């Protein structure tokens, strides 16, 4: 068995009867003993520290030197293997030039899911409503930096063409039923069931000619949460 490298020389790893090293067994026991909630918090703090460190182009050794902690301690904290003390977090935050509270950001981020049963999307009004376009909102993001709006858009005999939509962000269109000539960014596209189109929302776009009705398409708009 190859000896493991330690500061000041080599220290052999003692093998157990099952063939595993005692060091690995200790780490496994520490992981098993860690409460689930505490582990989640430790891992979230570690991920955030690593994110700040790499964004600054710092190595583990550099962060350790500036926070007066050993590289090994920094590595364990980043991997969520050891609970950092408040003093350690304060020192690390100071070295990263961020407030201590910023290190908890990953843990505090909300994770959301939006479920809508078939046929129960929220019918809302948009610019195309006045020309007979029906918009059914299929979900929405509750938090985060990106806002995503998935719509089921239906066009019928009562609908009119309107190739002048403009909005912030990016739009993805997937045609489910019917056929339509769709204008986007100065070009036209003959969309049939199964066809898709990805476009910049600030360029004028929309259906220019309705070929086969009814037309049903999935339209997903994605934009920064602070833009409308």
Helix-strand blueprint:
Layout: E1 4-6, E2 9-11, H1 22-33, H2 36-55, H3 60-67, H4 71-78, H5 86-96, H6 105-108, E3 122-124, E4 134-137, E5 146-155, E6 170-184, E7 187-191, E8 196-200, E9 205-224
Antiparallel strand pairs: 1-2, 3-4, 4-5, 5-9, 6-7, 6-8, 6-9
Helix pairs in contact: 3-4, 3-5
CATH T-level topology of the largest domain: Jelly Rolls
Q: So how many helices?
A: 6
Q: Which secondary-structure class do the elements indicate?
A: alpha+beta
Largest sheet properties: 7 strands, antiparallel
Mean pLDDT: 80
Stretches where pLDDT is under 50 for at least 5 consecutive residues are: 1-37
What does this structure look like?
- By secondary structure, the chain is an alpha+beta fold.
- It has two domains: 12-108, 434 Repressor (Amino-terminal Domain); 122-224, Jelly Rolls, CATH 2.60.120.10.
- The protein is built from six helices and nine strands; from the N terminus they run E-E-H-H-H-H-H-H-E-E-E-E-E-E-E.
- The strands form two sheets. Strands 3, 4, 5, 6, 7, 8 and 9 form a seven-stranded antiparallel sheet that branches.
- Strand 4 (134-137) and strand 5 (146-155) form a beta hairpin.
- Helix 3 (60-67) crosses helix 4 (71-78) and helix 3 (60-67) crosses helix 5 (86-96).
- It is elongated.
């Amino acid at each position: 068995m190859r000896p493991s490298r330690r500061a000041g020389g080599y220290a052999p790893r003692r093998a157990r009867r099952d063939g595993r090293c005692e060091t690995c067994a200790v780490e496994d026991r520490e992981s098993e003993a860690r409460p689930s909630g505490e582990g989640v918090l430790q891992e979230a703090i570690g991920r955030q520290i690593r994110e700040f460190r790499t964004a600054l182009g710092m190595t583990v050794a550099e962060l350790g030197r500036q926070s007066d902690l050993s590289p090994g301690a920094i590595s364990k904290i980043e991997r969520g293997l050891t609970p950092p003390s408040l003093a350690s977090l304060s020192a690390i935050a100071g070295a990263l030039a961020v407030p201590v509270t910023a290190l908890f950001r990953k843990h505090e981020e909300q994770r959301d899911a939006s479920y809508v049963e078939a046929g129960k999307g929220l019918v809302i009004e948009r610019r195309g409503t006045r020309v007979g376009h029906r918009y059914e909102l299929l979900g929405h993001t509750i938090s985060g930096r990106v806002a995503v709006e998935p719509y089921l858009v239906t066009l019928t005999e009562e609908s009119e063409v309107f190739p002048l939509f403009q909005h912030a962000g990016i739009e993805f269109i997937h045609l489910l039923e019917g056929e339509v000539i769709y204008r986007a960014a100065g070009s036209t596209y003959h969309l049939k069931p199964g066809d898709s189109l990805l476009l910049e929302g600030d360029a004028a776009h929309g259906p220019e000619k309705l070929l086969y009705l009814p037309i049903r398409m999935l339209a997903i708009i994605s934009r920064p949460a602070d833009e409308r």
